[in-house]
Predict the 3D structure of the following.
Amino acid sequence: MRRLFLSLCFVFGATTASAAIEIEEFTSPGGIDVWMVEEDSIPFTALEIRIRGGSVLDAPGKRGATNLMMALIEEGAGDMDAQAFQTARENLAASYGFRAFDDTISISAEFLTENRDEAVALLREALVNPRFDQSAIDRVRAQIISGINSDAKNPNRIAGSAFDAAAFGDHPYGSSQDGTIESVNALTREDILDAHAAALTRDRMFVSAVGDITQEELGALVDDLLGDLPETGPALPDYVDFGLGPGITVIDYETPQSVALFGHKGIKRDDDDFFAAYIINHVLGAGGFESRLTTEVREKRGLTYGIGTYLIPKFHAELYLGSVASSNETIAEAIEVTKAEWARMAEEGMTAEELADAKKFITGEYPLRFDGNAEIASILAGMQMTGLPSDYVINRNGYVEEVTLDDINRVAGELLDPEALHFVVVGQPVGLESSE
C-alpha cells in the first residue's frame, strides 16, 4: 500500500482554508487496483470506475452499440424492470452515472454510509445482470435516434462529424459514437449483450473512491461489485494518424452565421513537452477573454462572440482543435485572423509577461478542481487511466512552473503549423469555397 498526503489550499473571499487529503493506493484481495481518500467527516462515499475501451470497441457494422448499452444499464436489472430499479435507487438516496466515451466508459456512484451495502448491491445487479428488456431498448433507441436527428441540424455537430470523418476515415474516431440512424435501428438485443461483454472487463479497469469508507471495507466492496465481470476484453484499435491535410471544406447550410471547426495534429499526453503545449494553448485560445484569439478576433475586430482552442490527446490519436462562429459575411476574415495568430505564436512565441500570467492562472485554478468527493474520485480515476502517478497532484503545479520561455518558444514552433490547419465551415460563408 502507498499513502500520499496532498495539501490543498482553497480561497473563499478573504479567507483561506487548507485541507490535507491522503491518497492511498492498494490492491483488493481479488486483485483490483484501487486509489482512495478516506474522509469520514460526512457519512457519504463517491465511487468512480473507468474502463478503457469505450465506443472504439464497437463491432464492425454495430456503431452505437456501446453508447446504447451504457444508456440501458440502469433500465432494469435482475428481477427489477426499469421502474422498479429506479424506485429502489431513489429509496436508497443513491445516484449512479453510466457514460460511454470514445476511449472509455465511466461508472459513477454516490451513496450514504448507512445505505452502502444496499446501494452497492443494486449497482452490482446493474453491472453484472442488466436486463436489456426489449421495451427499454426500443425506448432508449428512440431517444438516441432523436438526438442523432437533432445533431444533423446542428451546425457545430455537422462540422464535427465532417472533420472527424475526413481526419480518421474508417477508424472508430471517424464516426460518432452515437452511430447512425441506420446502425442504431439495426442493433439487436444480442448486439447489446456483446457490447456489454466487450466493454465491462477487469483488465483495463481503474477504480477510485473518496469518502466515509476504510481500505478494508473498500477492498471487499470492489471485489463484490466487480469481481464477476469478465477478466479480459477484445483488443483495442490501432493508433491512427491524423489524416486531414490543410485547406477549407465548406458545407452549405442555410443559417445567418457560419461555424468553423479547425485544427491539425496535436501532442501526446505523456510527451515531455505537454506542459509547454498546455501553456501555449492557454495563451493562444483557451484562456477566455485573456487569450490572443479572443483579443484579436472578438475584442479588436468584433468578428465573433466566442473562439476557443483545445488540446485533445486521445488514446489512439492526438488533435489540436479550435472553433469559431461568425456571420456569413465575416467568417472569412475571422479565419484569416486566426491563421495569422497561429503563425505569430509559432514564429514569435510568447512574452515573459504572458508566460507569467498564464502560470499564475493555471496553478491557481488547479486546487479548485478538488471541491468534492465525486470530483476528487473522478480526478484520481482519470490519473490512473492516463498513467499518472499519485504524486502528480503534488507535483503538477511544479511541472507548470518549470516550463521556461525558451521551452515555450521552441514547442510553439514545433507544435503550431498554420499551413497545416484545415477549416470545416458550415453555413453560407461569403468569399469562401472548398479547397478540395
The radius of gyration is 23 Å. The chain has two domains: 2-226, 247-427. The first helix runs from residue 65 to 72.
